[in-house]
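Run log, item B.
One chain of 185 residues. Sequence copied directly from the ordering sheet:
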Amino acid sequence: MAALLQDQLYEISQQATAPCKDFYQLIVTKKEVILRTWKVSNPSKREKVWPTEDKKIHNEFLVDDYLQEHIKRVFGDAMLRYVTNLCQKHIDYIVRLPEALLMHIFSFLDWQDVKQVSKTCKKFQQVCKSDAFWEQAEHTCYSKTNVAMEGVSSAIQRKLVIFHRKRALMNLARNQRRMSTKGYI
């Protein structure tokens, strides 16, 4: 599974909370944690402030309380826990799988399970909304035509309706062909 990982595991950028206007970028790679800071200086003071970069390998980051506090202050406690987990090699591999592989895995799910999977994270939602996934789903057997739509996002709901209409038309055409070859029509 480690071979599937890209060099960059995670990246986030954001502006600090008011009244500060500084901009931060946090990058976690397989080996390092990088925090870049762009200080927004007061134009009336006419001071020149250059961007800074703090780079630590994972083991150094885990013992660097100053950098951890800085990340916690800017990005929040949940982000610090996530970065710490990445540094400790607690990596969420399934989210990092290629989209084609995720689509193949999801193609074995019932539509209700697809609905639930799409709610778990942004990447899964993007995969479940993609046209490529629904084109691939046309070739698989989602046999249920009675679709309960509550709790489904509007984008996925549209795709489900289109999919089930196409599936119903395909079944109708197949039944008509079968009847005509048997001589009933």
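Observations after the first pass:
- The CA atoms of residues 26 and 35 lie 5 Å apart.
- The longest strand covers residues 8-15.
Flagged for discussion on Thursday.
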